[in-house]
Write the structure tokens for this entry.
Amino acid sequence: MTKHLLPLLFLLLLTTTWCSCADAPSDNRPTITVSMEPLRLVTEAVAGDAFRIVSLMPKGASPETFDPTPRQLMELNSSKAVFMFGTMPFERTVLPRMTGNAAGIALFEVAKDVKPLESPGHAHGSVSGLDPHVWMSVRNLSLMAERVCNALCEVVPDSADGFRQRLSKFQNEMAQLDETLTQRLKGLRHRSFLIYHPALGYFARDYGLRQLPVEIDGKEASAARLEQLANAAKTDSVQVVFLSEEHQGLQAQHLAEMLQVPLVRINPLTADVKNELLRIADCLAN
């Protein structure tokens, strides 16, 4: 009897699973594609719930090894608009090729109004040796949101009023966050920090801080440079070493141990940029 029951139970389980998948609601909202997760924050804030926001680089992916999947190409081809920062190499090379063969796709660069920050350490992975991490600044986020809004008003003019209202709300939030970060970092006695990959250049510029990068131009530090960094960190009384989640950063770990300061993992590629910047500020303030 058990032998006859097992196939029946399996068939019942298979039918139930198929029914639940068939009944699952599909997302029929128009799609907007963003190049990276941090740009999702800005785009979702301005576009609202009427659009489905898809990121080409999901969590855990790296801009340096990005390779689009067939499914991503399909989603890109059906997008109402495609947004990119315009500061990452793959955005300048891969994205135009991906959108070039599809008719009617609007590709927008949102960081054009951001005052670029020179960063020799990024010559291998940026446009013209500039710091590509434009999203690691609430002031830049506010500027880029305006670009997103203008683009959406162009693509979907019937919804322009809603886009502008949400832009105003987002920019007010960014102004409040900027004030919070300013107050939190204003009284810092020690204003330098060590970081493996120099991802916080704009953040440091906004609040009068100094980042000391271990990695320069994608290369590990030499023994002589490590010694220079250690001396500079002691002179500036560095209290923390930052290490991005996508990097192993053994040299950063070594410096943190040598200086007897905390090694803090950060995630510059998260969509939750607001809370990540607050967390970084707290690490510096405490």
